[in-house]
Amino acid sequence: MSHAPGCSPAGDDEPEATVIDTRTTTLPREHRWVVVDVETSGLRPNAHRVLSVAALVLGEDGTVEREFSTLVNPDCDPGPVHVHNLTRERLAGAPRFEDISRDLADILDGGTLVAHNATFDYGFLDAEFRRTGTSMPAQQRLCTMALSRRLELDVPNFRLATLAQHWRVQQLQEHDAYDDARVLSEVFVHSAALADSLQLPLPVVNCRGRKSVHPDPVPRVACDWQNPGRLTDSGLVQGMKIVVSGSTTTPRLTLASRLTDAGLDVMNQVSRQTSVLVCNDPFVQTGKVRKAMALDIPIIDEPQLERLLAGVRPGVPKVAAVIDVVPQPGTPLETPIVLEQPAPIVPPQTWALAGQKPKLWSGRRVLLLGGSHLDGVLMRSRITQLGARPALNFTAAVTDVLVLDGGHDDKRMPRVTARQLPVLTRDDVDAALDRGVVPPHMRLEAQLSAPVLSRGEVIDLPSKNTSWAVNVAWKAEAGGSDDGDQLDVDIVAFLLGDDGKVDTDDDFVFYNNPLVDDGVVELTVDGPSEQCVRLDLAGLPEDCRRIAIAAAIDGDRTFGDLGAVSVSVDGDDVTAATFVLDAGTTERTMVLTEIYRRDGKWRVRAVGQGYDDDLAALVARYGVEVDEDD
Asked: In what side-by-side order are the strands of the sheet with 389-391?
């Protein structure tokens, strides 16, 4: 496949930019970077399959040293053909994954996988390798979406097509795995060079060895069938929700796999939606049995289940929306890249908090240097009142630097000077708040940004959007380092009813239970200091009135050690709100935000309520129960 022609330089109407030749780029040597893209038959690794895969090994200068690309025949429905154009006929002569797994493993072995929405690509490849009886060779990954967020690029969204346009990379063939991987390699090189110029670490995630306080005994597999309700004399129907309690003759994971293959929805906890509980000895009175009895849910033993499995009736399919997995583009690696940001791709947002005028510093991103912890808390609060967004890292989006006591000695000051960023003082903040005085360099700024909320503030979400991503981030340096000095932070979510409690433990979303109801709520770990909770509000059950999203720090470390936490509520094309929570000191857990129904609308509240106890105590407040005997 031929490379795209070089892109033309910026027009005269675009701002001046510092240009650097990518041939001088040196990627971090401690990683062997392998850029990967997959096309798939759907969105769920446990239920859908890889249709094509491409992997490109990059040298230190960003050029492609080795490549691998092939179609894959999974002998199944290829899914959204209108997206990837991979029909059964095109795939018929392709090798199976087990036929190419050894060559692909050789490419990936010892590498750091780079992908756009890397959780998706890694998850599908991991599932395919597991089907062959082997394990995924790559043990680390980097998400270019997370990298772009960390850089705070001036883009309306973080789709790969948007990022390619931002970096002036031309797209040749959308949803072709090879071309997508080639294009992604260029976007990655551009982004890595900018990160290096800002001295920001890259968001590499270790995919192995993760611990969790609440292990999930049966991996959650999304079900393709609607729940028909409780078990009756008519027998099992595809889509019924089944819970297993206590010891079983067939190993539990094997039994769960058989139930899933039959089209049944295997859950870990009993709820009002449970169709039947399987328990060989209900007199043991486990927590699940007690709840099933209280809810009048049928209880059967394993022999009864075996008889019923012989005649499972067809269910009603769920209506699944087709979602484009990752659009992508490309240009040659010799093309110069722009280290200062290009002009915005689309006009800036022009909406503000309903019923309010834009604040004095709207659209500004202010980095604080120097001062004590209390100074930082106070000044971030004050600049938030002015409508600016506090920056946690020195990123491409920083527009101003507020220097407090000792700030001139900060190691980032030379870069502040090199970028000729305006430097603010306490007096500038006081003058703006007390007298409405705006520094001269801000008076030309007409851009309105998404509302910056203060702690406790509430806004309505735009009704036209039902899909939202709650992106949580903290200082990149706190996410991990080579010497092992890191803070382990877990982002969790709770689906709550009117009583403020979960209906079942499956409504607790965390690292080992990251997916609820076919992705209606999904947690992704995008980087060492970036995690995201994605919500499909239209798909939530009616009895879910509120989603609480919280953070917990493992061990004895506290939010005083972690520092400020940034939260951004992002739609596909719009950011509804952002806020920074930095008042934590001795707390080990903190409720960050709540999204809840009120008068037919969904609303967002910036919470910031911290607790000194651990994650186990936090989940107990929301009604999560763990039965050790189950």
From this structure: 389-391, 365-369, 400-403, 423-424
Q: So what's the pLDDT on residue 358?
A: 62
Instruction: Find, among 556, 630, 517, the residue nearest to 217 by Cα.
Output: 630
Q: In Å, what is the CA distance from 461 to each residue of 570, 596, 603, 607?
A: 10, 10, 5, 16
The two beta strands, 489-496 and 508-509, are antiparallel
With CA atoms as reference, report the closest residue to 509 among 493, 497, 530.
493
Q: Position 623: which residue type? A: G
Which residues, other chains included, contact 31 with Cβ-Cβ below 8 Å and sequence gap of 6+? 111, 112, 140, 204
* DSSP symbol at 572: S
User: Which stretches of the chain score pLDDT less than 50?
Assistant: 1-23, 209-216, 320-355, 445-447, 480-484, 627-630
- In tens, the pLDDT along 125-172 reads 999 999 999 999 998 999 999 999 999 998 888 888 899 999 999 878
| Gap between the Cα atoms of 401 and 407, Å rounded | 10
**128 — phi, psi (to 5°)?**
-65, -45
Question: Cα–Cα distance between 569 and 452 in angstroms, integer?
Answer: 11
Complete DSSP assignment for 450-508: --BPPTT-EEEPPTT--EEEEEEEE-GGGS--TTS----EEEEEEEE-TTSS-SSGGGE
DSSP per position, 232-298: BTTB-BTT-EEEEES--SS-HHHHHHHHHHTT-EEESS--TT--EEEES-GGG--HHHHHHHHTT--
Q: In angstroms, rounded to a whole number, what is the distance separating the alpha carbons of residues 213 and 17?
A: 48
Contact (Cβ atoms closer than 8 angstroms) between residue 38 and residue 124: yes
Give start and end residues of each alpha helix (H) in 504-605.
559-562
Per-residue tokens: 324:
């484009």
User: Is 550:509 a contact under the CB 8 Å cutoff?
Assistant: no
Amino acid (1-letter code) at residue 124:
F
Helix, coil or strand: residue 618: helix
Any idea what DSSP says for residue 418?
H
- The pTM (predicted TM-score) of the whole model is 0.74
Kindly calculate the radius of gyration of the chain based on its CA atoms and give it in whole angstroms.
26
Contact 561, 582 (CB under 8 A): no
3-state secondary structure 142-154: EEHHHHHHHHCCC
